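anyone else get weird line breaks when pasting these?? whatever heres mine. first is seq + C-alpha cells for prot A
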Amino acid sequence: MSEMLIPARSQPLIAWLIAALLVLAVVFFGVLPAWLKSQALSEQIENGYQRLDKMRQVAQAAPELTVEYERIRQQGIDKLFYPQGMTAAQVGKELQNQVAAVVARQNGTLFSSEVVDETQAQEAEASTSDYQRVTVQVVFQGKTELLREVLHAAYASRPLIFVEGLEVKPLEGVDPKEQLVRVTVKIATYWRGAKP
C-alpha cells in the first residue's frame, strides 16, 4: 500500500487547521455550554434570593398577624364572618347572591357566576387553619359605576373578602359618557369550616 504523502509545505498549515478545530471544539462543546449553565444557575440564584426576601417579609409579619388572629378569636369577632354551620357551597352561593344584587341594583347585566373549584388548596388550608377559602368568579357588563359599586360592596360587606383577580374590557362603539365595560372578577372569602 502506498502511503499518502503530505507535502512538507502543507504540513504546518494542516497542523494549524487541526489546532484551530480543536480550539473551536473545546469552545463549542466545553466553554459555551458551561457559560450557558452558569447563566441559568445565576438566574436561579437570583430568583431564590427574591423568594427568600419575600419569605423573610412574611416571617417578619407573621407574629403580628398571629397576635391579631388570636385577638379576633378571643373577642369572638370571627363570629361576624360566615358561621361555622355553613358549607362551602352555601358560602359561595351567598357571595354570588351579593354580587348579583349589586349588579341588579346598578342595572347591569350578569353573564355568569360560578364557584371556582379549589379542592387541593382547600385541603391544604383545612389541615393548617380553622378557616377555609371560597372563590367566586363573576362576569358582568355595565357602566364603570357598576364596577366601582361591586368593588366597594366586596370591600364593605365583610372584612374577609378579597378581590383576587380583575379583568376589565371596555366595549367599543358606545358613547364615551356612557362607557360600558365587561368585567371578570374573582372574589375570595374565608369561612370558618366545621371542625372534624
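and prot B, same format (seq, then C-alpha cells)
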Amino acid sequence: MRYFLLLMSLWLLAPAAGATALPPDSTILVINHLPADGLMLKKGWRYHAGDDPAWARSDFDDSAWDTLNPTRPRRELPQALGTGISWLRLRFRLGDSLRRHDLLVNCGERGAVEVYLNGRLVQRQGVINADPAQVVPRGRFPQPGQVPAGGPAEQVLAVRYAPWQSSLLVGIDRTPLLTSVLFNPQVFWEGQGKEKNNSQIYLVLLGFSALLALLHFAFYRYNPAQRANRYFARFALASALASFGAHCMYTLTFDSLGPYLVLAATTNSLASMTGLWSVRALYALFNVRPGRIYTGLWVVYGGVVLMLALAPYLPATIFLWSGLSILFIAEELRLTVRAVRQRRRGAWIIAVGFAGGLLAAIGYVGIHALSVSVLAANLCIVGIFVLRALGISLFLAREFALDAGLLQVKLGEVERLSAQTIAQEQDKQALLAAQNETLEQQVTQRTGELQRSLTELRATQAQLIQKEKMASLGELTAGIAHEIQNPLNFVNNFSEVSAELCQEAQELLATAALPAADKDELTELLRDLEQNQAKITQHGRRAAAIVRGMLEHSRTSPGDRTPTNLNSLADEYLRLAYQGLRAKDKTFNAALRTNFAPGLPDVPAVGADLGRVLLNLFGNAFYAVHQRQQAGEAGYAPTVSLSTERVNGHVAIRVTDNGTGMSPAVQAKIFQPFFTTKPTGEGTGLGLSLSYDIITKGHGGTLSVHSTPGESTEFTITLPV
C-alpha cells in the first residue's frame, strides 16, 4: 500500500476522460480562468501526420487538419499518430487578466516533443526521430515552456511529436498520446517542491529500516538458532532499499523515461518482497513449516515482478500488485490469529503491531481518497511499516529477555542443587567423623604420637575435600558467569553504538530541510531514544558488576593457612578501610575504638582471604554510620568499634557500629547471594555472602550478626585456634 502512488504514477499520469472536438465555427479556445492545479488543454486541437517546419508558424492555415482530443489513449486515435512524426496545433485566446501575467505550459507523455508558441521554440523534451524505436522519451521533472505576459490576443501552440515504442513493454498504447497543461508559475514550482519535500518521509523509513536490518543481522550472527532474526533482517533490508528507491523517484531528475521505469519496477518489487520476508519471519517465530501457501506467494510474486517490468501501464498490473499485498496481509493475519488462539507466548504483541499497521493502511486509503493532507498520508505510510516492524521486533526483544530470565532461573537451580550437594557431602562427612570417633575409642592404646598424626591426617583430608568441592563449584559458577558476560558485553557495546547513532541522527536532523513541527517531533523522539539507551547502558553496567562479583565469589584462594596475628591484621584493615572512605569523602569522620585482647594466640588462616572479610565488614560499618550521619540526627557521633577475645578454644573478632541497624527480616537474608540493602548501583549483594563462605567453609569458623534497628549492628567472627 505504501508504494501504491508510485505504481499509479506509471499508469495514469493524466486523466483519461475524453473531450469532444470544438464545432467548426469555434476554432479558438478561450481561456479566462486557470484552476488551482492548472488547466488540461483537451479541446481545439488539430493534427496532421508528417513533418514540416512551416507548421510551427502562427500564420499557417491548419483549417484543413482533422481535430482530436490528444489526452485519449493512443489505441483510440488514428494509427498514423503512433508510427512517425506528426504535428498538433491549438489556437487559444487568453483573458485580459491572464495576459497580464507570465504562464507556463508543460507538454509531453510517452514520447519526444518540441513545443512552439507563436512560431518560437519554448520547450523540448526527449529526442525526436522518425523511427519510433529510436525516439528518446522525455524524463522526470522536465522544464516547462514560457508563455510570456503581454502576448497577442490570439496565440498558437504547435507541438512536434514523435511517439516512443519499446519492444519489451506491453500496454503503452493505453497511455494518452499527449498531455498539455497550462500553469500559474508559482503553483507549478510550489507543486514540484512539495512533491520532493514530501518524499523526505522515505528517508525516515530508510534510516529506521537500515537500523533494524543491522541490529537483527547482528542478533542472528550471535544466536543463529533464532532464524526469525535473519528473515526479519531481510524484511528490513528490502524495506530500506525500497524506501531509498521511492525517495530517488520523487527527487531525481531523469533525462529519459527508461531509467525511471527500471527504478520504479525495482522499487515496487522490493516493496512486495517485504511482504514475503515478513510472512517468512512469522513462520519462523511461530514454528510453522512453510507449505504450499508460501510457495504460491513466491509464484504470484514472480508474476508481479514480470508485470511490473514488462507491463507497468496495464490495469491488471495494479490489480495484481494490490492483490498480492492483500494476500500478504491475509497470511500474516492468519498466522497471528492462529498463534493468539493457541496462546503462543507474546503473540499479542505482533497482533497489536499488525492491527496498528492495518488501521494506518485504512487511514491512508481514506486520506488519499479524500485528498485531506499529504503529511497525514505520509505519516500513515510510516505507520504501516513501523507498527508492523515494531511488533515483530518487540516480540523478538521480549523473547530474548525471557530467555535471559530463564537462564537466571536455571542458574538459581544450579546454585540450589550445589547447596544440596554440599549439604549431602557435609552429612557424609559427619557420618565419617562419627565412625572415626568410634575407631578412636577402639585404638586408645595407641601412642600419643600416632594420635597426633591421625588428627593431622584428618584435618588435611577435610581441607582437601573442601578445596576440591569449592574448586568444582567455582569452576561451574565462573563458567556460567562467563556465558552471561558475553551477551552482556554485546548488549552494552551495541547500546553505546545506538547512542552514538542517535547523536548522529540528531546532527543530521538539525541540518535537514523539514518543517519545524516535524523536526521538533523527530528531535524529541531521538532524545527519548537516547535516554532509553542511557538506561540500558546504566543497567547493563550494573549487570556486568554483578557478573564480576560472581566471578570473584567463585575464585578460590591458592594460599595455605599460616599462623596469623589477628590483632595486627584487624587493626591494619580497620585503618585501611577508614582511610579509603575518607579519600572518597573528605567530610566523613568517625570515632574508631579498639579493644584487643592481650596475648592472643596466632590463628592458622589465609591472611588475604581473612583481610577481605574484615575489609568488607568495616566498609559496611562505615557505610551504616555515614547513612545515619547524613540523616541529620542531633547529637549523633558516628562510632565504629573493634574488639578481640578468646572464648572456649576459639578467637572472636567483633565489629560494632552505631549506624542505622537492620530489621530481623533483613538479618535473616543478609548472608544470601545478591541480597543488598544499598541503592541500585552501589552494591552487588555478594560481599557478605563471600565473607560467610570464607569464614565457615574456608576456615571452619562462624560469622553471625546481631542488630537493633535504628541503633547498632554487631558482626562476630569466631575462628578455631
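btw re prot B: The chain has four domains: 4-192, 199-404, 462-554, 562-720. The two ends are 83 Å apart (CA to CA).
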